[in-house]
Design a protein that fits this description.
Distance between the termini: 22 Å
Radius of gyration: 18 Å
Order of helices and strands: EEEEEEEEEEEH
Shape: elongated
Largest sheet: 9 strands, mixed
Number of helices: 1
CATH topology: Immunoglobulin-like
CATH architecture: Sandwich
CATH class: Mainly Beta
Strand content: over 45%
Length: about 140
Amino acid sequence: MVGQFLTLVRDGNEVTATGTFNPENPKIKHATVLFMVVQGEDDSMVWTHGSAAWAADPDDPTKKVPWVGTASAEGDGVEGKRGWLDPGTVRGIAVALVVLPAQPGEGDGARKFEPPTIQALTWCVSSKLVAGNATEVADAMGVPA
């Protein structure tokens, strides 16, 4: 499985995150993406979190389909402080959760299946949080918002 961030845009009080997810398994049709955006270090650190849904293209499961999620631009800080994410360098951290359907198992002539499982992929990248209109930024980069 492969996941990535494409854009992180602050538009007023909201951060819109876009990315791609490739489960590398045509049996996986959807995922829930939980993400966090972290800025600063030590006692000046601020973070926020959001979620997104990803679904495979029903006509072409190999097509890269983006996920889009939002989070508040105001986030938590160290020792109960609150703060705002500002344009600049951030860390994007995400996990995609998928359900892998039941799989054929080992058996002695009987038709056996292993039960479905939940699998997770986590990724972390340094990125830029930019200010602007999330739709306009995504359009300029060729990413559906």
